[in-house]
Amino acid sequence: MYLGAHIGIADGLAESVRQLRRIGGDALQIFSKSPQMWSGPPIAATAAAEFRSAVAGEGVKATAVHHGYLANLGSPKPETLARSRTALEDEIRRAELLGVDGLIFHPGAHLGSGADAGVRTIVESLRGAIAAVPEAKVRLLIENAAGQGTTLGSTFEELAAMLAGVDAPDRVGIALDTCHLFAAGFDFRTEDGYGTLVDRIGATIGVGPVRAFHLNDAKAPAGSHLDRHENIGRGEIGLAGFRHFVNDRRWQAVPGYLETPLDDAGYERYAEDLRSLRSLLAAAPGRRPSAAPSRTRRRPAASR
Fold this sequence. Notes:
Order of helices and strands: EHEHEHEHEHEHHEEEHEH
CATH topology: TIM Barrel
Number of strands: 10
Strand content: 5-15%
Mean pLDDT: 93
Distance between the termini: 28 Å
CATH architecture: Alpha-Beta Barrel
Oligomer: single chain
Strand order of the largest sheet: 1-2-3-4-5-6-7-10
CATH class: Alpha Beta
Radius of gyration: 18 Å
Largest sheet: 8 strands, parallel, barrel
Structural class: alpha/beta
CATH superfamily: Divalent-metal-dependent TIM barrel enzymes
Helix content: 25-40%
């Protein structure tokens, strides 16, 4: 797995790349604008070129833009839905200008219209965005949810329905957040639990569409449906809960971005979390990380 973090762009797009490398990261996630804004100022062509050059020059292995927090692509409210769809199309163009690999976004919430209706609306939103920007190469990555309120995407069945409805495997994929998985009821802290999780992934969305991870520990217990991130090894998941993820060769070319809490120490907290994750890597000389066992006899896995 390519390990990295979400870095701010206050000091400039290209500087975010250098900040990532200073803490030892190989994968970079950024916002292209404030996540609390529907739209942002245009990205200057020179700034975008400098960012792309820095990514190549620093040897960063994977990049992503995270979409803002206001959009709800499953909203039953016409005005909100229209603004959300416009915002997604704009974010696709911004991500394409930056040349990143993925655009990660929260699919949205049905707000009482029902899960089936919400999923259909999300599918329509994604199909419309792809049609509106057909030349784009950036992959749209649907992030799983913790299952709080009416948010959609906390079950693999909902994620699979979104992928199947869009039916554009070269343009759409999945980003799995470990905190959200845990909060949604998937307890992967043991070898057996991890095997069951991978079985569920394989039987629903498939391994191939998983194109990114958010590596976050969880403040709240499994099944809490609370999206509360914690630093690696300091939460309910615990350090050992990440061992299978970072050693599973199915994810060896997939980025894992930290979104763990920062404090006055700034990105040194990310550096500590990266060191914690790397301490879990199989260290025997010449040993390749192995795929974690798949459960041939499945137990019912927890969900919403």
